[in-house]
Design brief:
alpha+beta, Helix Hairpins, D-amino Acid Aminotransferase, Chain A, domain 1, 6 domains, seven-stranded antiparallel β-sheet, five-stranded mixed β-sheet, 25 helices, globular, binds 2-(butylsulfanyl)adenosine
């Protein structure tokens, strides 16, 4: 084939393939079988291999994701990406309408367009002459991250607006929400459970984690979708009179747009729309967290304008946290790493706020009493902080008389040893340190991401190792051979070798992680790091007195006692020894991230951050190469202030230290939304 013919055929193929992508991913109605689609892709790939200079960025062959990147560069939004004011009650809705009409000096009704408020991650897509040139996250609204490479892998995002639409402007920014469909989210978590990867708490986290992946191939392997709802910057050849026509135009160039589009004109009709969307909420394919009302007329929108962060012409009514009734089938007792026996509610699975809930922790015996729930009860459940399932109480009217109270068993359900309730404590414990349940939890904790971070050693493998008697403690993991591993289910030579490699790598994680991973009571990640820093080696820690331990910032008498008690125990000493013999490093490694983007900076955090606990934020900056301090001094370069920041702020000002609020901090570390 000559070049010109090839060029023409490539153009045709690209258009056809993108059209099929649109039909498959946006309209949900493919018109050709997968095999025919694959044939088109193969033909295109073949031609592009032959004529490499004819490969363009909008080719569907470029959607597979390139090589991993070290980080994301930032993008300045020319038009800020705003957020929305929130409404929670019928009165709020009435007040919003009143405010709008007052600002417009109008007695007659104003027309609003309703849309679903999707619960995902805001994104802006820039198209020049129809071609997608840049995709960026919202960040703090003014500065976002460039996620173009990842976005290219999302099949429901057109790379070229002309493949579906006509009337393509010189420039347009399309804004929308990146979401993961609930069914895809369930599948993703199910497969992560099998591979031992940590589960995503909800579809929003899954979508955010996927979009902010440094390896675009991972993004490509996970199903993301976009639901568009607005335009950002546009050239003058695209003038649309209403929000409704905006959505129609966006749909016309190949996007899925926000569903539930209605025009309403009175507070009563607005409220009715909230009822309707609320009822339809669980039938939407993606997670939604409310309904948005937007003044439909663009000219009126311009008159109303915006405040610093929010448009005055739009507002969102937020769904109340969903509460569902389901049956409490049983209360089982789960044994933790330290032997604590926790009652866990087994529920008839029920979908709440976008994911299925089948279990809920009941914390302890007293909590079960306080709630007044009986096994067999119908109970009300919701998700606390929209993540952790929580039982609110029984529905007494649904009782039939066969319900029975929960009694904490006298013996451990796993090993049969005695369960003892410690005086003055709410907790009940299994006294047998070799209880397989405790062993299992200790192994899982040792392998977890924050501890020794051993990939591939998830529940599936650990359960088998414990059952087969191959691992009684964490030191046994380092004695595992390929042969032993191959006896496990679903374990091939390749996976086994990889696992051994990960185990080998984990030996050099350093003292802080080992300290946290062996599970000294009350020694969390922060204490472990501070201790490692102060003592430098396991040996000097093991011989430290309680008194010298309390000299470490943040270590109180009780923790110090726990630490010395831990090292007095013969079997703990032996365990440490065996780990050391196996080659697990018990020294403080050279500072990690010394060449990270924040190298040379010293951070202090004050007040509470809403996005993450302080310890997490400290660890984050440390992994990026910075140091952290608890107190303000001249060597501190940056103070990050959460809510209720106090005297540190004054001191930092006096010393002329850079002060960042939470938003600025999050965008600095690339976690802004
Ligand atoms: S409009 C000009 N419409 O909600 C106003 N936002 O709290 C900009 N969102 O960051 C937002 N669905 O990510 C709008 N139908 C919808 C939406 C929506 C979800 C998100 C968006 C934004 C946040 C604002």
């Amino acid at each position: 084939m000559d070049r010109d013919t090839a060029r023409e055929r490539i153009r045709e193929l690209k258009a056809q393939i993108e059209r099929h992508n649109y039909e498959y991913y946006v309209l949900d109605s493919p018109r050709i079988p997968d095999a025919a689609f694959d044939a088109l892709m193969r033909e295109l790939k073949g031609l592009e291999d032959q004529f490499a200079d004819l490969v363009t960025s909008d080719s569907p062959t470029q959607r597979v994701g390139g090589t991993p990147v070290g980080g994301f560069t930032t993008v300045q939004h020319r038009l800020p990406m705003l957020s929305l004011s929130n409404m929670f009650s019928e009165e709020d809705v009435t007040l919003f309408d009143a405010r709008v009409r007052r600002a417009l000096a109008r007695d007659e009704p104003v027309e609003y367009l309703t849309e679903v408020k999707m619960d995902g991650l805001a994104i802006s897509l820039r198209y020049e002459k129809g071609l997608m040139v840049e995709a960026s996250t919202r960040g703090d609204g003014t500065t976002g991250e460039d996620v173009t490479t990842n976005v290219r892998t999302v099949r429901s995002i057109p790379m070229n607006l002309a493949s579906v639409g006509n009337r393509i402007p010189q420039l347009v920014e399309i804004r929308g929400e990146m979401v993961m469909f609930r069914r895809d989210f369930e599948l993703l978590n199910a497969s992560r459970a099998v591979s031992g990867d940590p589960l995503f708490a909800n579809p929003r986290n899954a979508a955010a984690g996927t979009l902010r992946q440094l390896d675009p191939r991972v993004t490509a392997s996970r199903p993301l979708h976009i639901v568009a709802y607005a335009l950002g910057e546009t050239s003058e050849d695209l003038i649309l009179p209403t929000q409704k026509s905006v959505l129609e135009w966006i749909a016309g160039v190949g996007f899925r747009v926000s569903p539930f589009v209605r025009l309403v004109r009175t507070p009563a009709a607005m409220w009715e729309a909230t009822r309707e969307i609320l009822a339809a909420r669980s039938s939407l394919p993606f997670a939604a967290d409310g309904i948005v009302f937007k003044v439909n007329d663009m000219a009126l929108q311009r008159v109303l304008g915006q405040t610093a962060k929010e448009p005055r012409w739009a507002s969102a009514w937020k769904f109340p946290p969903e509460e569902k009734e389901t049956r409490l089938e049983d209360i089982i007792v789960s044994i933790g790493r330290t032997g604590v026996a926790t009652p866990v509610a087994v529920l008839t699975p029920v979908e709440i706020d976008g994911s299925v809930v089948a279990r809920a922790t009941l914390h302890n015996e007293d909590e079960v009493k306080r709630l007044g729930i009986l096994i067999g009860d119908t109970v009300t459940v919701r998700k606390a902080g929209s993540v952790i399932p929580e039982i609110l109480g029984p529905v007494p009217s649904a009782r039939t008389g066969i319900e029975r109270p929960f009694i904490m068993p006298a013996a451990c359900p796993v090993c049969g040893s005695q369960l003892v309730r410690i005086e003055d404590e709410a907790a009940t414990r299994c006294v047998n340190a070799s209880c397989p349940a405790q062993v299992r939890q200790r192994l899982l904790h040792w392998c977890s991401k924050d501890a020794m971070d051993i990939q591939g050693l998830g529940e599936a493998v650990v359960d088998q190792l414990v059952a087969a008697g191959e691992a009684h403690d964490v030191a046994d993991l380092y004695q595992l051979t390929e042969e032993q591993l191959l006896r496990l289910e679903r374990m091939g030579p390749l996976v086994a070798r990889k696992l051994l490699l990960h185990l080998e790598e984990s030996k050099s994680r350093g003292l802080a992680r080992v300290l946290y991973a062996v599970g000294v009571p009350q020694v969390g990640q922060v204490a472990a790091r501070d201790l490692a820093h102060a003592f430098g080696s396991m040996q000097s820690m093991a011989s430290a007195t309680s008194e010298s331990l309390t000299h470490v910032y943040g270590i109180g008498d009780r923790t110090a006692e726990n630490i010395t008690a831990f090292f007095r125990e013969e079997h703990n000493r032996r365990l440490i020894e065996r780990l050391q013999t196996a080659g697990v490093s018990m020294e403080n490694p050279a500072a990690t991230g010394a060449h990270g983007p924040l190298a040379g900076r010293v951070f202090v955090f004050t007040g509470e951050l809403s996005a993450m606990p302080r310890s997490k934020a400290q660890e984050l900056v440390r992994t990026l190469g910075a140091e952290t301090s608890e107190t303000i001094s001249r060597k501190v370069t940056t103070l990050v202030t959460g809510s209720a920041a106090g005297s540190k702020m004054t001191k930092a000002r006096q010393l002329g230290i850079e002060i960042l609020d939470e938003q600025q901090f999050l965008s600095l570390v690339g976690q802004g939304t």
